[in-house]
Amino acid sequence: MIDVIGELKQLLSFPKEIAIISHRNPDGDAIGSSMGLAAYLQKLHHSVKVIFPSEYPTSFNFIFGVQRSIIYDLNQNAAKQALEKADIIFCLDFNGLDRVDKLGETIQFSKAKKVLVDHHLDPEPFSDFEFSDTGASSTCELVFKLIDDLGDRAKVDPIMGECLFTGLITDTGSFRYGTRPYTYEVAAALKVAGVDDYQLSDKIFNSQKAKHLKLLGHCLANRMEIIEDHGLGIMWLTKKDYEDFDIQRGDTEGIVNYMLMIENVKMAILVLEQPSIIKISFRSKGDISVQEMAHKYFNGGGHKNASGGSAYANLHDVIKRIKKVAPEFIK
Q1: Which of 125, 166, 173, 175 lies closest to 143 in space, CA to CA?
Q2: pLDDT, average across residues 53-81
Q3: What is the pTM (predicted TM-score) of this model?
């Protein structure tokens, strides 16, 4: 049997040029896992560049090192050069090269060793080393396990720990879903390493601008429909809403979850009318798989209770289609 950890440990045993890349529209788990892994690898004296295909929400500016990351949409040459120069490419929090847009081709044909660390279903076989576990709460949890398996748990410091704890908090909704016993073991280890989880939660959740609450109020009052017969909640935002509320990347994060607070709502869906595409966020409770629905009807996927999708259609037709197919998955 191949000793994957042993091979990776050997590969990391002397300084390398390393690129870390995560998915487009990076969230707390993508950012936290990337910056946490970067901090670890820098401790091993590697030269590390972190790349995101698109801009990250400014609410995560507090994460150590994130403002030095390379954004492909803003600096394409620097992103490609970092990948082309790399001896090792770590691919975090995505299961297919389509999630990194045009950079997927650069990664595919790179001669660098590729390491996948991810918790989504059905990873594509493009990597040399695959650390995939769909039972994990987050990619941050898997990055911690990787560091631990490499024998370097003692190297996890408060800065690295805060990065990794960010993914635990954001991908589990503050430990409300998607957890397993090991998730709490990781949280405990990060606390031991010096993470102040109260202060971290305050940074993540209590730093919103007034416009975010106004947008939430608009969604709840004017853009929400509850179909009680099916336990379905639908919310939508139009192109005009984007203009009226100056909606930027990350501003709609978490809004879909408010519908799951409603008694008897088992599935919640947020539909976003963007300039050339409709983006859709799916959430569910219990044994209802929105991943199946997103994959079957909306060119998407993700996790059982939290997925994303898209459609090239008008807003009205997408909402109509959701109402038609959702009962198939709500039990």
Answers
A1: 166
A2: 95
A3: 0.89
